[in-house]
């Protein structure tokens, strides 16, 4: 089991993760730190636990929207009868591509943070 240190909202945290996952954990922590910075804005005295809760709620909302969009895409694909002889494979690929693009558009991307390394 590996150990990784991350900084979120100016506080350092030491976390355990699987070997090799350290860069991903640091990347995700950077995204959360960026989101918290946006939520905090110019406020200097916002409690950490409130900021972490607000960030968790924003991320949970985005995840819920993405899951709902994925479910709609699955229903669209499952509900259609495609016939390869009549070009159904191309139609299925087009419909799936449109559904995935719609799902991706609904999820607000988090800004990427460069840690200066």
Automatic annotation (TrEMBL):
Species whose genome carries this gene: Rhodomicrobium udaipurense
Domain of life: Bacteria
Compartmental location: Cytoplasm
UniProt GO BP: division septum assembly; FtsZ-dependent cytokinesis; septin ring assembly
Gene Ontology cellular component annotations, sorted alphabetically: cell division site; cell septum; cytosol
Protein name: Cell division protein ZapA
Keyword Cell division: yes
Function: Activator of cell division through the inhibition of FtsZ GTPase activity, therefore promoting FtsZ assembly into bundles of protofilaments necessary for the formation of the division Z ring. It is recruited early at mid-cell but it is not essential for cell division.
Assembly: Homodimer. Interacts with FtsZ.
Listed PANTHER family: CELL DIVISION PROTEIN ZAPA (PTHR34981)
Keywords: Cell cycle, Cell division, Cytoplasm, Septation
Keyword Protein transport: no
């Amino acid at each position: 089991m590996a150990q990784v240190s991350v900084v979120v909202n100016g506080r350092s945290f030491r976390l355990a993760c699987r070997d090799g996952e350290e860069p991903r954990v640091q990347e995700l922590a950077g995204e959360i730190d960026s989101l918290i910075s946006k939520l905090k804005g110019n406020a200097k005295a916002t409690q950490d636990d409130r900021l972490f809760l607000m960030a968790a709620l924003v991320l949970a909302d985005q995840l819920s929207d993405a899951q709902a969009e994925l479910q709609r895409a699955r229903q669209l694909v499952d509900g259609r009868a495609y016939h390869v002889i009549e070009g159904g494979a191309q139609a299925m690929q087009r419909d799936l591509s449109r559904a995935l693009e719609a799902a991706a558009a609904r999820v607000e991307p988090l800004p990427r943070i460069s840690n200066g390394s």
